[in-house]
Amino acid sequence: MSQSFLESLAHSRLLSTGELEDLRRKASALGLNALGLANHLGEQGLVTPWQALQLLAGQTSFFLGPYRLLERIGSGSAAVIYKARHVKLGYVAALKVMSAAAPQHPVARARFRREVRAAVAVRHPNVVATYGGRCTGKASYLVMEYVEGEDLDHWLKRYGELPLAWCCEVARQVAVGLEHIHSQGIVHRDIKPNNLLIVARSPREVPQVKVADLGAASIQSGFGEAVTPLTSINQFLGTPNFVAPEQVVSARDVDHRADIFSLGCTLFKILTGQTPFGGATLAEKLLARTKQDAPPVSDLRKDVPPQLGAVIARALARDPDGRFSCARDLVTALRPFSLQPEKSLRTPVVASSASARPAMAASPATDGKPLPPFAAGGPPKPLPWKWFLERQNAQGLKETYLLNAADRLVVGRAADCDIQVRDVQVSRRHCLLIYRDAKWHLHDLCSNNGTIVNGVAIQHAELKHGDQLRFGSTVLTLAAAPQFPAASQAASDSAKLVAIDEEGSHTTGLDQPPAVLQDAETIHFARDHETAGVRLRFNKS
Q1: Dist. CA 413–CA 411, nearest whole Å
Q2: Do residues 340 and 406 lie in contact, with contact meaning Cβ atoms separated by under 8 Å?
Q3: How far apart are CA 267 and CA 221, in angstroms?
């Protein structure tokens, strides 16, 4: 039995020659059977649990192109999704592998390529990114962003009734993502809980939401005539419990308002635990939405205010002309009920270098405005101290990021994070810094390698002055100083950049007082007879 397992392992190419020989010696010395060998490999981190189970079943195929398959994370009638790692570059991605029969059809191959081109064009924080795809004689697959979260359907099964504001925040972020998808001439046509990925630890946290799976999308503008994508061949387009009435009649003739109806069904479902249209059979479910209006959501959940009930009813209008005319209007309508009340965009005060550039935009899921700390009531209180983060850059200088009570900072590798950390060990969205109850709190966003505070891996931590936050090889230090009144309005409209040399002295330029930098001004620092330029991009409110 162990010999058969070792032969499968050799054919799999998961281990190097040296590792395989070492395993053979251990198996002989310890008398390990196949299950014992699989457990040993897992304990040593040489294979994943999924790979071990596949090896025990006699499977030996774990590579697809340049990717090593790590885990099967989802499946459907048309595709299987794997978590995979690029062998040479080391990054983790999600591979959506199409069914084996589809790539053989020449029309399907052409449609698949067009689907890839369209999906790659959709780049938004609330949409799962697609990096590319490949169509071969053996397999066709999409390379997508790997999201460290679970779909909304899992959340419903785990928690049952979810907080009203949390549900509305999820729907609002989906609408934000749909607005971008629609702007690219694409109609999703399959919005449902299973296609919405949630990144959060519990319903008490502000979620990050991503729209997934453009496999049933209708693609127009910019990509030629409307096409039927690969994954819709000989299949019903959409999901019966969430599909729009006009999509039942003709899936090819729907527009973006069909997605608004499906999102209305989704919000109804997560608020009440039921879909708005029932039926014992597929035909009954489809017929119900064409013949009758959805019941008031307040009939099934008493804490739904009448105004929110009206928003959902409008999204679920049978006539497309009776719905919201665009996703942006739905975003506006949902905002008062979500965790995202109307506020002006904070002015970020960030000192950046060319080698490590903090993003100047708000966090990915904020629709251009900062989220309040867990929907705490009322405006943020003034800070008794002036808080800032320090990070040492490649030139040995320390960059200072001034913080304020309205800050909600996402730290990660992605370019649209508030603080971008260009380190392969850092996840795209690694952790969240948020100010609550006069203190700073840090929440790990299910990162690959964890968030380290003062040398200890954490999921959540309450921070204090002097705490060191490590992400890969990058260290941020939280520091505080007394809060003094601003000397002038001009100074308050500027950004201060403080550099700290090897002796710990605060210097700007050649031993000058801290500089007040104006918009896009460049200042040079002298250190070890070398000059490093630091450019500050600053947007005033």
Answers
A1: 7
A2: no
A3: 29
Q: What's residue 536's pLDDT?
A: 31
Cβ atoms of 228 and 166 within 8 Å: the answer is no
CA 525/CA 512 separation, integer angstroms = 11
Indicate the burial class of 489 (C-beta count within 10 angstroms; 0-12, 13-18, 19 or more).
exposed
CA distance 169 to 209: 9
| Residue that is written with structure tokens 């040995």 in the block | 396
The Cα 49–Cα 63 span in angstroms is 16
Q: What angle do CA 447, 450, 455 make, to 5 degrees?
A: 155
Compute the distance between CA of residue 492 and CA of residue 516 in angstroms, rounded to an integer. 10
- pLDDT for residue 471: 79
Q: What letter represents residue 402's amino acid?
A: L
Q: Do residues 94 and 103 make contact, with C-beta atoms less than 8 angstroms apart? A: no
Where the chain has pLDDT below 50, the residues are: 221-235, 341-383, 394, 485-541
Question: What residues does 97 pair with on adjacent strands?
Answer: 80, 141
Q: Which two tokens stand for residue 156?
A: 């419903």
Question: What's the token pair of residue 47?
Answer: 């294979």
* SS3 of residue 72 by DSSP: strand
Residue 100 burial (10 A CB sphere; 0-12, 13-18, 19+): exposed
Give 336's DSSP letter: G
Locate 93 and state its tokens: 């991605």
pTM exceeds 0.70 for this model: no
**Token pair listed for 68:** 């090593």
The residues annotated with a catalytic role in the active site are 190
